[in-house]
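User: two proteins, same treatment. go.

Assistant:
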Amino acid sequence: MPTHPLASISPQAAALLAKEQQNLAHSKAPQSIQDTRKETLSAYRPAVERALLKYPVTTTEINVAGIACMQVTPPDPDPSRQILFCFGGGFIQGSPFEDLPITAALAIKTCATIIVPHYRLAPEHPYPAALDDITTVAQHLLAANPKTLLSGESAGGNLALALTHRLRKLGLPTPSALAVLSPATDLEYVGDSHDADRDPFLPAAVTDDLRAAYLGTQNLRDPEISPLYGKFDATFPPTFVTTGTRDMLMSGCLRLARVMRQANAPVDLRIWEGLWHVFEFYPDIPEADASLSEIADFLNTHF
C-alpha cells in the first residue's frame, strides 16, 4: 500500500514544509535588498531565540585582522578547539546572528569556539569581497591555531570550499577539515534538483538574481566562484557534506562528492530524505539536531 510522500520525515518537518509551501504560493513581489534583509532578519529572529534556549552559548563581537566577527563560545570551551564558520544568505544577505541555530549547536556539540566573520555582502560588495574577508580571517586564525576547522552553509559553504582552493593554490596552511551544509558548489546552477524545483525554502527562480548581484560577468567555472571545478586530490582536507532530497542545491552536492571521490579526496556525503536546503537551521525539527550531531561527530575527529 503506498505511503504518504511525507511519511519519511518527522511530523515537525512535514508541518514546516507545508507552511513554507503555502508561504511560497502567497509570496510578494521582490523588494529592495535592504527591505529583504530586514524582513529575513525579522523572520529568523524567533528561530534564533529558540535555538539559544536549546543551546546556551555566549556571543561576543570581536575584531580579527581588521574584520568584524561574532565569537560563539560554549559554556565549557576547549581552548584548543576553534572553528571558522561562514554564514549563508545567497551572498546578498545573512549575518552571524541569523546562523546561530547552527553555530550555537555546533559550539555546544564540539566544545569549540566558533568565529563567524561579518563578511561584506553583494551587490554593494560583489565578488571577491566576501572571499577576501574570509581569507583574511582564516589566515589569522590558522597562524594562531593550525588545527582550526572550517564550516559553512549554502553561500557560506561555497566560501568555505573556495577559501580552501585559494589557500592551497597560494601554498598556505589550510583547515584540517571542513563541513559544509547544502553548499553552493556550482554557480551555473545546473542539475536535476535545480530543474525539479521542489524546494520551497530556496526556489530555483532566485538563482539568476543572486548570481548577477554577486558575480556580474565573472567566469562561473573559476574554482573561487564554483568550487566544484577546483583541483581535488588526496591532500584536500577531509570534507563532510550534507543536503536533502528536496534541496535545490542537492545536485551540486552530489556532483562535488563524485568529483572528490574520483580524485581520491576524502569526502563524506549525507543526503537526508525529504528535507530541504539547510534544514539544519530549523531547531524545531529533530532532523536538524540529528544532522548537527553527525557534523559535530565528524569535526570532533579532526581537532
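Protein 2:
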Amino acid sequence: MVKKKKTSKKDRPVKRVRRRLFLVALILLGVASVGATFWLLYPRPSSEVPISLNCPQASNGEKVAAIIDGLSIDFPNQELIDELKSLLSSNGYVVDVFQGSDVTLNLYRCIPSMGYDLIIFRIHSAIFNPQLVPKEELFPAFFTTEEYSMEKYLNEQFSGLVVPAVPITPGLSSTETTQYFAVTPGVFVQASGRFKNTVIIVSSCFSAITDKAAKVFLEKGASAYIGWNDLVSVEHMDRATLLLIQEIVKGTSPYDAVSKVNTTLGPDPNSGGRLLIFR
C-alpha cells in the first residue's frame, strides 16, 4: 500500500493560492498582440481602506509626465520611448520613464499620488472573468514586470488585488513565456493619494473593453482615460500612441486627439480594436 503524504500546514496556503488562481487558456487571434493568452478567473476585488506607502514624487516641473513602459521586456521599442520623451520635453513637460524592473505593484500603488499631469502606460493587460460575467462587466488587469511567485504578495493574491498572467509572445507557447503579476483595478482604488486632473493613456489590449477601469481612474481624480476596446497589435498601438501625443502637445483636446487617431489610422487591421476615451 502506498501511504498518502500528509499536507503540512506550511504547504496549505500555497495550495489554496494555486486553487484560487486557476487560469483558463483561450485561443486568440494569430497576431502579435499585447494582451494576455490567459483569462483570469478570480473573484472581483472589493474596495479596501487606502494603504499608506512611502511614495516618491514626480520630477519637478510645471508640467510632468510619466511613461510606464512595461513592454520594454517583451516588446521593446526604445525609439518610440525616446521620441515620446523628446516630444513631451520640447513642449514643456518634465518626463519620468519607468521601464523593466521599475514596473512593480508598488509603482501602481504610488502613481496616483506622484503628481503627474499625463501618464502613458505601455503595458500588457488581460481580461477578468470573460466566461463568468456579461461583457459589460469585464475589466482589465494591468501587468507588472514582476515575475509571478505563489509565495509573494499572499494577502494581495487572496484579496484579488494581484493575479498571475501570461503575455502573448509570437512563436512561443504559454508554457514558454514568463508569468507575471498583474494588478486589478482594486489596486488603484486602494492606492493612497489622488491624480491631479491627469490624462491617462493605457496603451494595451482591452484597457477600455468596458468603462470599469476608466471609472476607477476618473473617480481617483483623472480628467480623461484613453484605452483600447479589444486586441491591438504592438505596431498599431505604438503608432497610435505617438500620433496621440503629437496631437496633445499641440494643444488638441484628448477627445479630439482620439478622434484624429481613429480617423487617421483606423481600427487595428486584425482585431478591429479601436481607441476610446472616457471623461
